[in-house]
Design brief:
Shape: globular
Mean pLDDT: 87
Oligomer: single chain
Low-confidence stretches: 1-22, 437-457
Distance between the termini: 24 Å
Strand content: 25-35%
């Protein structure tokens, strides 16, 4: 964001109050959602994570903005964000410290809320939320009155959405995913019901989106490893901003809409990544709760081309879709890093379905086994280009190589060095269905170079 824009934003931030002392209101700059979307698409690199919101930088603590009220032993802090013209709003906090009993909710128009988020949802002192619909959003923090003084955070980010992710009528030019996509609730997707539950959309920095897959390790530990693409630009610095969205699917086949974004996990750390194969491995800050009913996908690193493949992904920040290729993939060089190396699978054309921007990082599966063999880098496939190709970084090439543990999968997915080549996916056993929260969870200290602005076109 330019200094001029920041200065303009500072001038637009106002606090409003009346005699009844309602919550303070922060006014963000007005926007034209359609124009913002067009501008984002025009300025995107050849391929890039799908941008869905405009970032606004703030620096507001509970002492600097908002209104406190007290009811008995409970204190409540409220602040309203107003972003005229925005289709949805999300927020990010830093330097957050929530005492026991404290929680935060974000409520949009139509009363739709995300949260409550508590201390267990903080990663490295940060909390980032999914978007809520509309051009206004209310932040509400409840805390035991006796612990009010120990509550701390700085509201540093407000994302003003322009892709109408809740489809509330953003007008022409804010169309949903391509018409040829296939909902994962359709009958042809049923053989992959397990693998579908391993796939999630995720947001980065409250403004960009990609797709990733919850993946099993050789030890069967059910640690929440999440595999995606290097070019989605998750780094050690911004990994706490990652918000994974689970079971975001159309309720009915062919609807291509109507899904819920209310199941989320906030925070992650980056453990390994490499540009040539275009992979990134994250560890989520918590295992998705039992009620999300997620699946940990299996994988195959033998590097043998399967007869047929399947791709499960989130096109255009929209509901989960599935695509089918009835032919074996071919091997080739990177499709995004100077066309070098022998790193990628190529899907010549999808017989049914397609991928779009936002699908980046999604897994390519062996259709016969449901095991992950690659992850989406980019390509020309689209509803308007049914003969277009897609290319996927090969899992086998990501397994080893690089110069250290932060550039390969093996140290994380097979730390005991068992030399496992294939593993099946699994649901979480009942004995492990308690949440996996780690109080000391912090981003890793490893240094992984940030990716260039490239992704699924």
């Amino acid at each position: 964001m330019s200094r001029a824009l920041l200065a303009g934003l500072a001038l637009l931030v106002q606090l409003e109050a009346t005699a009844e002392a309602p919550p303070a209101i922060i006014h963000l700059p007005a926007m034209d959602a359609k124009a913002a979307r067009v501008a984002a698409d025009r300025s995107a690199a050849k391929a890039a994570p799908l941008r869905f919101a405009r970032p606004h930088q703030l620096h507001l603590s509970p002492a600097q903005a908002g209104r406190w009220t007290r009811e008995g032993r409970t204190a409540r802090w409220k602040l309203v964000l107003s972003a005229p013209g925005a289709t949805d709003i999300n927020i990010g906090l830093r330097k957050a410290s929530f005492p026991n009993g404290a929680s935060l909710t974000l409520t949009g128009e139509d009363g739709l809320s995300v949260g409550p988020f508590d201390a267990a949802d903080l990663t490295a002192g940060q909390l980032w939320t999914p978007p809520v619909p509309g051009e206004t959003a209310r932040i509400e923090v409840t805390v035991p009155a006796a612990a009010e003084e120990t509550l701390g955070f700085v509201l540093t980010h407000a994302g003003a959405g322009f892709r109408d992710v809740y489809r509330r009528g953003g007008g022409p030019g804010l169309a949903k995913q391509g018409f040829c996509n296939i909902d994962v609730t359709c009958p042809e997707a049923e053989p992959f019901d397990d693998e579908i539950r391993a796939v999630a959309a995720y947001t980065i920095n409250g403004v960009d989106a990609c797709t990733g897959t919850l993946i099993m390790d050789a030890e069967g530990s059910f640690r929440p490893w999440f595999l995606t693409a290097f070019h989605c630009r998750v780094s050690t610095t911004n990994a706490p901003s990652v918000v994974t969205l689970w079971n975001y699917e159309s309720p009915a086949c062919g609807q291509l809409g109507g899904g819920s974004r209310l199941q989320s996990v906030s925070g992650a750390r980056l453990v390994a990544a490499r540009e040539d194969v275009d992979f990134a491995l994250l560890e989520l800050s918590a295992r998705p709760p039992t009620e999300f009913d997620v699946h940990f996908a299996g994988w195959d690193r033998t590097d043998l081309a399967p007869a047929t493949t399947v791709g499960i992904h989130h096109p255009g920040v929209d509901e989960k879709a599935i695509a089918f290729d009835d032919d074996a993939p071919s091997r080739g060089p990177s499709c995004i890093v100077n066309g070098t190396g022998d790193t990628h699978w190529y899907v010549g054309a999808w017989e049914r379905g397609t991928t779009e921007r936002g699908s980046s990082g999604s897994a390519l599966l062996d259709a016969a086994t449901g095991r992950v063999i690659g992850l989406l880098s980019g390509g020309a496939a689209a509803c308007s280009n049914r003969d277009g190709f897609d290319c996927y970084g090969r899992l086998a090439r990501a397994w080893s190589g690089g110069t250290n543990a932060t550039q390969r999968l093996e140290p994380w997915l097979d730390p005991a060095g068992s030399d496992t080549t294939t593993i099946d996916g699994s649901d979480l056993p009942a004995a492990l269905q308690a949440p996996l929260f780690t109080d000391s969870f912090e981003p890793g200290t490893e240094t992984v170079r940030s990716a260039p602005a490239i992704a699924k076109p």
